[in-house]
Amino acid sequence: MFFGERVAAHYDDRSAPPARETVDFLAELAGDGAALEFAIGTGRVAVPLAERGVKVAGIDNSEAMLRRLREKTTEIEVVEGDMTTTRVDGEFALVFLVFNTISNLTTQDAQVACFANAAAHLKPGGRFVIENGVPALQSLPPGQTVLPFRADPEGFSYDVYDVVTQAFSSQHFYIVDSKLEAFPVEFRYAWPAEMDLMARLAGMRLEHRYADWDRAPFTALSPSHVSVWRKL
Amino acid sequence: MADEGYFGERVAARYDDVSWGMFDPALLGATAAFMEEMADGGAALEFAIGTGRVAVPLAERGVKVAGMDNSEPMLRRLREKTPEIEAVAGDMATTHVDGDFSLVYLVFNTIFNLTTQDGQVACFENAAAHLQPGGRFVIEARVPEIQRLPPGQSVLPWRAAPDGMSYYVYDVVTQRLSGQHYYFNDGLIEASPTEMRYAWPAELDLMARIAGMRLAHRWGGWKKEPFTNLSPSHISVYEKA
Fold first, then answer.
1. Structural fold of domain A5-135+190-231
2. Among residues 135-154 of chain B, which lie with CB inside 8 Å of chain A?
3. Minimal CA–CA distance to B69: which of B59, B57, B58, B77?
4. Does B227 touch chain A (CB under 8 A)?
C-alpha cells in the first residue's frame, strides 16, 4: 500500500497546499450543504474547506493518513474505508475526489462502483466533482509503453502503460543516501467520456467540464480536467 | 429519408467496387464464419447492413439474416443481390425489426457514424432490445489512433493515392472525428466528407453495461487473434444477461 506510514509522515511536506481557487470552487458547489471528500488523506483540501465554514466529512483507506488529519482538526468526521463501498451517514450536496485519485482504483468495475457510491451519498441535484489527468496517450507513440516524466537530482519517475487494460503503473525512484528507493503505484486510467458513462450508470449527468479550478475551458491541450456531474 | 448523408446514391453506386481490401474473399469468409458461430443456430440482425457485404455471405452459410440501414440507395443494391434478406430503412439507434435474434452485429467502425455518445448508447440499447437472453452483440471498430497524434496536432493523413487522398481530423475534447476524403475524377477533385465520433473500447464496454450486456470477448481479428497494444481494431462480443 503506497499511502502507509512512510508516505503519510512526509505527505504534507511533499504536496503543495491547494490553490485558493480549489477551495472557492468546492465551497461554491457545497453552498449551504455538507461536503464529503473521498480519499481525504491528511486533509490537504478538506481542512481549508472546513475553515470556510463548510461542513466536511471524509473517507480514506489509509489509517496513517487519517491520523495526520485528526492531529490537525476535530471538526472533520472521517471514516476509514474503501471509497467504492463505505457509507458515511448524512446527505451531501457535494462529493469530491481530487488529484487523480479515481485512478487509484485499478479496475473499471471499482471506478464504476465509486461513482455509484458517490451518487448514493448525494441528495437529488447534488454534485460529484472529480479532478483527474487526461490519459497521456498522445505522448506515447504506438508500441511504446514507458513514458518518463521526472528526472532531477533526487531521482526519476516513469509511467508504464498497458493500453489494452488501461492499467498504468507510476514508478517513482528516490535517491536516499546514495541508495535507490522505489515507490511504485498502480493505477487505471479512464477517459473523460468513459467517466461520463460511469456517472450515467450511477444516475448522474455531466454538468460542466473545465481544465482547472479557475474554470478555464477544457481544450485539446488540457493536461487534466475538473468535471462536475449532477445527480438527477 | 430526410438525409442519406455520406451513403447517398453516389457512394452506394460504387461501394462494392472501391474495395480498400474490405471485400477480400478471405476476410469475408472469416467474418461470416465468425458470425455464424456467434449466431449459434439462431437468427442474426445486422445494423448498417449496407449493400450486404457481410450479410450476403452469412446468409449463404444458412444463417437467417435481417438488417437495417439508413440509406435507401445502399439497400436497393442489397435487394438487387438477394431477396432472402429482409432489410428495412431506419436508424440503428431507434428502429425496431420484428423477430427473435441470437446475434446483432455492427462492423467496420460503423458505431462511429453515430456522432454523439447518446446516439451510441442508444444503439447499444437498441441492439440489446432485439436480443434474446444470452444473445450476443458483436462490434468491430478501430482503436482510436490517438497514439499517432502528437499533442496539439489534429489532422492525420490516412491515404495518398493517384486517385485521391484522405485525412482524419480529430477533436480530442468531443471525440468527434471527421473523415475528409478527396477523389480525382477527370481532372476535377471531389470532396466526400464523413462525420464520426470515436469511442474507446472501455467506453463501449460501459455502453453495453448501460444496455444490460457484458463484455464476453475482445479479439484483434475475425480468427480470434489476441487483442494487443498494437491492434489497430477490435472485435468485441457482448452478451445480454
1. Rossmann fold (3.40.50)
2. 146-152, 154
3. B77
4. yes
Whole-Å CA distances, A81 to A40, A61, A221: 11, 5, 35
Cell numbers placing A171: 514508478
- CATH fold, domain B5-144+199-240, is Rossmann fold (3.40.50)
A201 contacts in chain B (CB < 8 Å) = 206, 209-210
| Cβ atoms of residues B44 and B32 within 8 Å | no
Tens of pLDDT along A73-131?
Answer: 999 999 999 999 999 999 999 999 999 999 999 999 999 999 999 999 999 999 999 99
Interchain contact B230–A (C-beta under 8 A) = yes
- For the question of an ipTM over 0.90, the answer is yes
d(CA A169, CA A158): 8
Q: Where are the domains of chain A?
A: 5-135+190-231, 137-186
Distance from CA of A115 to the nearest CA of B (A): 13
- Nearest CA to CA, how far is B235 from chain A (Å)? 13
Distances from the Cα of A220 to the Cαs of A2, A5, A207, B154, B158, in angstroms? 32, 38, 19, 9, 21
Strands B43-47 vs A224-231: parallel, antiparallel or unpaired:
unpaired
pLDDT, one tens digit per residue, over B107-128 is: 999 999 999 999 999 999 999 9
